[in-house]
Write a structure and sequence with these properties.
Elements: H1 2-19, H2 24-66, E1 69-75, H3 81-96, H4 101-104, E2 113-116, E3 124-131, H5 138-143, E4 146-154, E5 156-158, E6 167-170, H6 178-184, E7 190-194, E8 203-204, E9 207-208, H7 209-214, E10 225-238, E11 241-248, H8 254-264, E12 269-279, E13 282-283, E14 288-289, H9 296-306, E15 332-336, E16 344-347
Parallel strand pairs: 1-14, 2-15, 3-12
Antiparallel strand pairs: 1-3, 2-3, 4-11, 4-12, 5-6, 7-10, 8-9, 10-11, 12-13, 15-16
Helix pairs in contact: 2-3
Protein name: Pseudouridylate synthase TRUB1
Main location: cytoplasm
GO molecular function: RNA binding; tRNA pseudouridine(55) synthase activity
Length: about 350
């Protein structure tokens, strides 16, 4: 019986196998159907993903265009303030999926971004940034108080008044004591007169003095002008280096201060390191966003937090998002030089 059943099963299998050629077309069509369906599903899924991505980018772009106010970033040593602003802009554009700058030149300007108070490329610290209507507040940031930690080097003078320049003079400093330095700081506190450095953002005939100097052109020093030093103290002295904590008003140059201190000590000096620890209400530790926080969401949160730091007369009302038909972004850089009443507006994209 078992043998008979086995024979029947065998026969059945043989019959099925033999019948395959007769139904090959049908079987092939049936086998081909799943891949076609899978491909269609993959195409549909990809389309949904692209649609969702576009929707997400559109939402980010709308949020970016709605940002308005003042916040702070942490500028490292190396880039100029303008270069850092450009880096910030590129990160925001990339995150929002905005078109290339070349394309946006033809479109309506919808966003402004700028910084208030230039930091030298060799300096680091707080850089205040205005975005949207916040760019109108940058002048107040420029004229407000700032705080710096500066490390000076005795015995060497340079053409730029800092370590990036060419040494122009060397004098002994071995007789200088901590008491000597502390004893002269009062002369540089309060309302004083200061001659700006030749390598600066101040202008002659529409061009920066630093640009003219780099070209080798003869440049005359600007006349001394009134500046304010709110506080000045010696933090450390390890000859030839001395560390100062300075709080000053707008238009003040730390490089000139350090140079003048060296001269007052019958020697010379230049700035070795410079860090801006505070500008207006913004501090380096609490408010300055590091580069990994240069995102639309992080900046939005910072704007919300920083709005409470500003005086009532400067506080901005929450701005309405731009019209939804604005598809592109064009930028205006407003670079305010570290001088009273002098600002350069650079429109780029």
């Amino acid at each position: 019986m078992a043998a008979a059943e086995a024979a029947v099963l065998s026969s059945s299998l043989e019959t099925d196998t033999a019948s395959v050629p007769e139904t090959a077309g049908t079987a092939a069509a049936t086998a081909a159907t799943p891949p076609v369906s899978a491909a269609a599903a993959a195409v549909a899924a990809a389309a949904r993903t692209r649609s969702e991505a576009r929707g997400s980018k559109a939402a980010l772009a709308t949020k970016l265009l709605s940002l308005s106010g003042v916040f702070a970033v942490h500028k490292p040593k190396g880039p100029t303030s303008a270069e850092l602003l450009n880096r910030l802009k590129e990160k925001l554009l990339a995150e929002a999926g905005m078109p290339s700058p070349e394309w946006t030149k033809r479109k309506k300007q919808t966003l402004k971004i700028g910084h208030g108070g230039t930091l030298d490329s060799a300096a680091r610290g707080v850089l205040v940034v205005g975005i949207g209507r916040g760019t109108k507040m940058l002048t107040s940031m420029l004229s407000g108080s700032k705080r710096y930690i500066a490390i000076g080097e005795l015995g060497k003078a340079t053409d730029t008044l800092d370590s990036t320049g060419k040494v122009t003079e060397e004098k002994p400093y071995d007789k200088i004591t901590q008491e000597d330095i502390e004893g002269i700081l009062q002369k540089f506190t309060g309302n004083i007169m200061q001659v700006p450095p030749l390598y600066s953002a101040l202008k002659k005939d529409g061009q920066r003095l630093s640009t003219l100097m780099k070209r080798g052109e003869a440049v005359e020093a600007k006349p001394a002008r009134p500046v304010t030093v709110y506080s000045l103290s010696l933090q450390k002295f390890q000859p030839p280096f001395f560390t100062l904590d300075v709080e000053c008003g707008g238009g003040f140059y730390i490089r000139s201060l350090v140079s003048d201190i060296g001269k007052e000590l019958s020697s010379c000096a230049n700035v070795l390191e410079l860090t801006r620890t505070k500008q207006g209400p913004f501090t380096l530790e609490e408010h300055a966003l590091p580069e990994d926080k240069w995102t639309i969401d992080d900046i939005a949160q910072s704007l919300e937090h920083c709005s409470s730091l500003l005086p009532a007369e400067l506080a901005l009302k929450k701005s309405k998002p731009e019209e939804s038909n604005e598809q592109v972004l064009s930028c205006e850089y407003i670079t305010l030089d570290e001088t009273k009443g002098e600002d350069a507006i650079i429109k780029t994209c």
